[in-house]
Amino acid sequence: MKAWIRLLRPHQWIKSGFVFVGLLFGHGWSDSALVMQVLLAAAAFSLAASAVYVGNDVVDCENDRQHPDKCRRPLASGAIGVQSALFLGVACLLLAAVLAWLASPVVLGVILAYLLLNVGYTLGLKHVVLLDVFIISAGFMLRLLAGTVGVGIAPSNWLLLCGLMVTLFLGFAKRRAELKALDEDAVGHRRVLEDYDPVLLDKLIGVCAAATIVSYSLYTVSPETVLMHGTDRLVATVPFVVYGMFRYLFLLHRRSGGGDPAAQLLTDRHLVVACCGWLGTTLLILA
């Protein structure tokens, strides 16, 4: 059972938190029907993501066996057979489709776009430098759109911009962590790493980190935001965002972190406190 759970990677479901952004900043938490739609969309995305991970593990099984960490994955280690894994992946896809349809036809369309995007990524786009990270970012942005456009909430342009920047930051940080962890064997495990180098990635990460902080800060003080929420106090949440970004950079460069953003957010106490502080402060101000 442990191997089956590991195959689905449920800790990655934290990424579905992007689905709830529209509900939070759109003041929709008091609408029970809307909350149910968002919950269904988040569940659908979580299952769809698990199906994608299963598919990736099947395709990358041989390469994973040569990786110092990925060799312990259920398929690479031989704990689960390929046919059994594919059966589980298809089951997750079907259940995700049903839940997405119950949320709304638009959410189902977004889920299908997410699946097609990942098929393209797995079949070759992951080897295209820069585009590989933009596709990772697009997966997060589709989650955000599922929780906004998918359930009838108009997304803020500021939040879309901030979401793009922070997901690009996480994507480039992941590549930097892989480059550092695999060292000379990096290209053998992920071909696109041949086109990256530490200097380039550090510059890209720095740009995305700065853009995230600036775009979110401007969102909190923009007249449109103040008018919508009836308060200018959202600026009080900025220190949590800044600390979280700086902590992530520290973990990346000094603690060999950054390779798995979901695991990092769940295990590092500083990031947990920063995220909880941001969410609690935001809820207190908006409510």
Residue ranges: pLDDT <50 for 5 or more in a row?
none
Query: Sheet with the most strands?
Result: none
> What structural class results from the helix and strand content?
mainly alpha
Q: Between the first and last Cα atoms, what is the distance in angstroms? A: 41 Å
Bin the strand percentage. under 5%
Instruction: Estimate the global geometry from the Cα principal axes.
Output: globular
Summarize the amount of helix as a percent range: over 70%
CATH superfamily of the largest domain: UbiA prenyltransferase
Name of the top-level CATH class of the largest domain: Mainly Alpha
The number of helical segments is 15
Question: If classified by CATH, what would the architecture of the largest domain be?
Answer: Orthogonal Bundle
How does the SSE layout of this entry go?
Layout (H helix, E strand, L loop, with lengths): L1 H7 L12 H5 L6 H28 L1 H5 L8 H4 L4 H22 L1 H19 L7 H16 L10 H26 L3 H4 L8 H24 L1 H7 L8 H17 L6 H7 L1 H18 L1
Helix pairs in contact: 3-6, 3-7, 6-7, 7-8, 8-9, 9-11, 11-13, 13-15, 14-15
Report on this structure.
It is built from 15 helices and no strands. The chain has 287 residues and is mainly alpha-helical. The protein folds into 2 domains: 154 residues, Orthogonal Bundle (Tetracycline Repressor, domain 2); 132 residues. Helix 7 packs antiparallel against helix 8, helix 11 runs antiparallel to helix 13 and helix 13 runs antiparallel to helix 15. The mean pLDDT is 89.
